[in-house]
Amino acid sequence: MIDVYLERSPAALKVPIMLEECGIPYRMIHVSVSKGAQHRKEFREISPNGKVPAIVDHQPSMGGPPLPVFESAAIILYLAERSGQFLSAEPRKRLEVIQWLFWQAAGLSPMSGQAVHFTRYAPPEAQPYGLLRYRNEVNRLYGVLNQQLGKNEFICGEYSIADIASYTWTVAAEHLQQNLDDFPNLKRWREAIARRPAVVRAYERAQAELQPPQFTDQEMRENLFGHTAASLGLI
Questions:
Q1: What CATH number did the domain enclosing 148 receive?
Q2: What is the CA 33 to chain-centroid distance, rounded?
Q3: C-alpha distances in Å from residue 64, one per residue of 26, 173, 194
């Protein structure tokens, strides 16, 4: 059994999709980031960065005590190696998938998150440049993905962890003010993944088991933004 610590967010939902695809039993544990639950000492022992998602594998493939893993890309890579699925053993194909996994971890995911931040939470005086910067960068990254998907049905040919990791932020395309009609290959790919039974199950389960966020914008700002090492007791 794997415990999955998560919130209803694009970054976090990658993990239940991967678990559903692999057929690995798991339990969802809600971490209310709007209430500051990610800052609690017991959660930081699992996720030192104080972010969701994180997992605890109670039966790790290498044996030994329960294994915590944090960062969504690392979790998905671990689950691929644990299950032997969605990551080719052939060296060149494996490297290609890992490159695209890192591409989303370094680009698509954080740039999309920043676009959401400036759209919803930034003060008015900070919005114009922030929105221009991050919406344009998401648009560029969508273009990169669209071009790659013009060559392959999935990012690296066969369905892989690169697709699982990248998909959830494209679900939020409309909130990011991206027009998928401009990216027909990406749109076709997104629709194909959305129909996969494991993806449907993951979203349905998150909807049923995770409490919807309940917060004021001010409360979320206090719990998510502006912390320093000192304010979190890290120094």
A1: 1.20.1050.10
A2: 15
A3: 19, 41, 36
Checking 34-40 for CB contacts under 8 A at 24+ apart, the result is: 34/213, 34/214, 34/215, 34/219, 34/220, 34/223, 34/224, 35/215, 35/219, 35/223, 36/222, 36/223, 38/223, 39/223, 39/227, 39/232
Which residues sit opposite 68 in a β-bridge?
Answer: 56
Is 105 strand, coil or helix? helix
| Phi and psi, residue 11, nearest 5° | -65, -40
Please list the ranges in the chain whose pLDDT falls under 50: none
Nearest 5 degrees, angle CA 49-CA 51-CA 52? 140
Nearest to 53 by CA among 69, 66, 40: 69
Q: Give the CATH number for residue 21.
A: 3.40.30.10
Q: Where are the beta strands (DSSP E) in 7-110?
A: 26-30, 54-57, 67-70
Same domain for 142 and 58:
no
Say what the pLDDT of residue 214 is. Answer: 61
Q: What is the pTM of this model?
A: 0.93
Q: What range does the domain containing 98 cover?
A: 91-194
pLDDT of 210: 87
Spatial CB neighbours of 48, under 8 Å, sequence gap ≥ 6: 70
At residue 215, the pLDDT reads 58
Residue 128 Ramachandran class (φ > 0 left, ψ -120 to 50 alpha, else beta): alpha
Which pLDDT value is given to residue 121?
A: 80
